[in-house]
């Protein structure tokens, strides 16, 4: 490669039927004319480009509105990984070799409906493997009877897709989880807030213990692995859920999941136990990847626990396997 050139390599799924043609073009500053149409990127091959700022996008669908910004440097290869979404086919029932699949609608998650540069794009997907630029998504089951132009939904299953990872869409009936008073905790005086959750600065007056979080307050766990989680309740029925990995031994007994660009963090420390029950622990301040219902729909974002607090005299069930 000549010294004045750089390179771009887009790493995508090599699964048969993987969809999505990606293009690359130089980033245009506002007011400097229309952007170029772009060069088609051949997956998993190095494309020689002059050093500079570029954006990767699709010509249609949700990734047409959501280009990934990359910088190509002199004499270096910049590698960008997509994520892969799988929609499986299932045999028709009964007694047939034919297969069918549900149609799903996928869109980028928005904190408020109608944002994202003045409009929200959605697209239909069926059986196969689909490549997208990583980020936060909403998936909703739909039917073939819906009009050909998909519109965005207020609700749906939200999940964070990491570059280079694969995800499979599936359906499952999940019963809502309701917590009893014995599975929740309030300040010892029964009135004061336990902490505050920012950036919304909601005062958290109650905390819930989900030994295995599946569906709570309308917020579903998008991971097929059920994790324990803390639920934080604020005014207006607002709920924040922070999943974590539980550790029985050691000073750190709850480690938040590495998600959305946030690393693992010590969520719970100083756990105490009695008769195979959790009787106390400390919730630590910090920024955590959080699932919430702030906008009348399941959402995901980074939220900060403003200050730590101690949980005392509880009798919580340990997560399964402990």
CA-to-CA gap between the ends? 56 Å
Class from helix and strand fractions: mainly beta
What percent of the residues sit in helical stretches (DSSP H or I)? under 10%
| Global morphology | elongated
* Low-confidence segments: 91-98, 113-118
DSSP summary, beta strand count: 31
Provide mean pLDDT, rounded: 83
What is the gyration radius calculated from CA atoms? Answer: 23 Å
Count of discrete alpha- or pi-helical segments spanning 4 or more residues:
0
Largest sheet: 13 strands, antiparallel
How big a fraction of the residues is strand? over 45%
Structure description:
The protein has strands spanning 6-11, 22-26, 39-40, 46-49, 52-58, 68-72, 77-81, 83-87, 90-91, 99-100, 103-108, 122-125, 128-132, 135-142, 157-161, 166-168, 184-186, 195-198, 202-204, 206-213, 215-216, 219-220, 227-233, 239-246, 252-256, 266-274, 277-283, 286-292, 299-305, 309-311, 316-317. It has 322 residues and is mainly β. The strands form 7 sheets. Strands 17, 18, 19, 20, 23, 24, 25, 26, 27, 28, 29, 30 and 31 form a 13-stranded antiparallel sheet that branches. The chain has a 4-stranded antiparallel sheet with strand order 3-2-5-6, with no helix packed on it. Strands 12-11-14-15 form a 4-stranded antiparallel sheet, with no helix packed on it. Strand 24 (239-246) and strand 25 (252-256) form a beta hairpin.
Please give the structural blueprint.
Elements: E1 6-11, E2 22-26, E3 39-40, E4 46-49, E5 52-58, E6 68-72, E7 77-81, E8 83-87, E9 90-91, E10 99-100, E11 103-108, E12 122-125, E13 128-132, E14 135-142, E15 157-161, E16 166-168, E17 184-186, E18 195-198, E19 202-204, E20 206-213, E21 215-216, E22 219-220, E23 227-233, E24 239-246, E25 252-256, E26 266-274, E27 277-283, E28 286-292, E29 299-305, E30 309-311, E31 316-317
Parallel strand pairs: 1-7, 8-16
Antiparallel strand pairs: 1-4, 2-3, 2-5, 5-6, 8-13, 9-10, 11-12, 11-14, 14-15, 17-20, 18-19, 18-29, 20-23, 21-22, 23-24, 24-25, 24-28, 25-26, 26-27, 27-30, 27-31, 28-29
